[in-house]
Design a protein that fits this description.
This protein has about 625 residues and is an alpha/beta fold. It is built from 24 helices and 20 strands. It folds into 3 domains: about 190 residues, Fumarate Reductase Iron-sulfur Protein, Chain B, domain 2 (Orthogonal Bundle); about 160 residues, FAD/NAD(P)-binding domain, CATH 3.50.50; about 140 residues, 3-Layer(bba) Sandwich (FAD/NAD(P)-binding domain). Helix 9 packs across helix 12. The structure holds iron/sulfur cluster (SF4). Iron/sulfur cluster (SF4) binds next to helix 7 and helix 8.
Amino acid sequence: MGGGSGGQIRLGTPSLFHSVAFFPPRVKNSPVMDFLRPENLLRFGYKDCVLCEVERKGEEKRCDRCSGRLGQRDRLLWEIHKDRIRRTAGMLSLLYPGLGHFYAGRVAYGIFWASLLPLSLGLVLNVWSGVTFGHAFLLAEAGMIWWLAWLDARRGPREPVAPCEGACPSRIHVPDYIALVRENRPLEALALVHDKLPFAAFCGRACPHPCEQKCVRNEYGAPISIMAIKRYAADIGYEAGIAPSSEVGEGVPGPKVAVVGAGAAGLSAANTLARMGARVTVIDSNEEPGGMMRYGVTEFRFPHESLLSDVKCIFARGIHFRGGVTFGRDASFASLEAEGFDAVLVAVGTWEALRLPGAGGEDQGFHDALSFLTRVRKKRPPHLHGRVVVIGGGNVAIDVARTALRMGSQEVTIVCIESRETMPAFPWEIGEAVEEGAKLLPGTAVKRFVLKDGQVTGFEALRVERVDLDPKGRVVPRTVSGSEFEVAADTVIMAIGSRAELPFIPPTAVRKAVDEKHHVFRLIFKGGESKIAAYACGDCVRGPGTVVEASASGRVAALNIYGNLCVEEVGKARYRDNYRRRFERQEPDRPEWRTRRQAERLLPGKSRGNFEEVEKRFTEDCARHESERCARCNLWL
Ligand code: SF4
C-alpha cells in the first residue's frame, strides 16, 4: 500500500516540503538519506501495520523498511508487552525521574528528566538562606518534575493518530483501510479492520461512528463516509470468503479460557484470545451467538446474513460454542475450574430490561423493548393492538417504533422525557422514524397508567420542564405541576434502558480494576468459592454502550488475561518500531471532494412496508470516489 498511486489530498496551502517536484527521486539503498528526507520525517508517526499478512503475491516489497513480517500473534504479544514496559517504567520513575525512560529505551528523554531534578535542587541549595517563598516554589517545582516524569514514563512515547482513529473506541486504522479501498483492495481493508474489530459488518451499518464527527473533512465540506466505506469492505471481503488472516504456529502455549457471554465484548475477547493461541470456549444462555447484535437489533438495520459473516469469521479461529447454557445454573466458576479452564471472562451484557412502576404484563398490553425485539428477531412477534406508544428517547426506542410500523401498526408514538433536541437517539435516526410515520411526543413523563377491563387504555402524562441527574447519575425529570394530560394507548412498549443481571457473582467477590478506561475488572473471591482467575468486562461492568465500545473492552480484557496467564511468553515479544510509509504523490484539494457521497436508501414509503435493509451498500465507484476524499491525516501528524 505504501506505493499507492496517488489520490492523496492535502488541505491548505501547498508547501515546499510537500511538493513532489522539490525532491529528486529517492536514492536507493541509502537509509540515512531516506531517513533525513522531510517527507519521511513527517510520516514517522505511523508504525503499526497488518498488511503483510494479506498482501498479494509479488507485492511483498510495497512497504518500506517494515519491522518485519510479523504474525498477528507477535503483534498482539507486543501490545501486551509494551503496556507492561510502560507500567514498569512508571514505577521506576517514581524512584528517580528518568529511570523509567532508560528502562523503556527512551535514552534522550531519560537524560532530560534525570538532569532536571538535580538542576532544580541545585538551584535551591545555591541560593539557600533560610526558608523563603521562592525556595518553597522551587521545591514544589522539583516535585512537579518528579510527577511529570512519572506521567511521561507511564504514558510512553506519543503515538500520533488521525482524528478519526483517535475517536474510535477500538482505534481501527481508519485512514489506512480507506486508502486500501481507494486502491481497490477491499479484502485487505477488511483484514485491517479485523486487526482491531471483528464486527466489520455490524459496525459498517449500525455504529454511532464518532470517527465521522472528528473527521477533518467536516471543515472542508462534509466528513468522509467512514462507516459506509467499512461496510463496503466488509461486504465485499466476506462475499469473497476472507479467512482469518494467519494461523497460530505450533508449540505456542494455549491456556484454556472460558468466555461467558457471546455478545460483542465476549466474542471480541474470544477472537483476540484465539489469535494468540488460547483454547477458547464461549458459553451463552441463548442458542446462537451474537448477543444484542443478533437479538436486540432489527433486521432492517442489520440483516441476519451480515451477522453470520462476522460471527463465522470469529468462530473460524477454532473457538468452541456452548449455547443454551445459563451461567449460574448450568455452569459456575467452580465447575469451569474443575473442567480445567485457566481463566473465566464474564461478558454477559445487560439483559434485564427496566420497566416503569405500574406497568403490567404482556396480557395487559405492556412490553419491554428487549423482549419485543428478541421475539421479532426470532420470528415470534407479539401481537400489537391498536395505538402503540413507545416510551424512551434512545436509539432502541426508535428501532422499536420503526419495527412496530413495519408490523402494520397504524399509529405509533414515541414518548420521551427529553426535548426533541436533547433526545439521546441520533438525529438522523429520529428523522427517519418520523419520515416513516412515527409521531413524537417529547418532554413528556408518565404519571400513571390507566387500565380498563385489565387492558391498558393509556396513561396520565405530565409536561417535563427539564431533565436533571441525581448524585448517582440517574435521570430525574422535573415536571410542570398542573400540566396533566392524557395519552391514549392500546399497547405500551418500554425502551427505557437495561441493566446487568449478575446473580452468579458471589457477594464476597471483590472487583479490582485492571483497565478502568476500558471497563475491565478482575474478580477476587474472598469467600474461597473458586481459585480460577476471573475477569469481567463490557456492558455488564459499564452499563449499556455501543458494540464498538464493548468490542474494545473485550479485546483489552483478552490481552490482559493472556498476559497474566503466559507471562514468560509475553516477555519474549520483540518488535522494532521502524516502519515508515513510502512516499505518496500529493494532490491539492479538489472542489468535487467537498461533496460527500451517500449510499442509496429505500424511500420511507417503501421501507415502512417490509424489513428489507434500508441503507444499501456503496457501489465500487462510489466507494473509490468517497475514499479519495480522505486526507490521510495519519501521514501528517
Ligand atoms: S480525512 Fe481521512 S484520515 Fe483525516 S480524519 Fe477524515 S477519515 Fe480520518
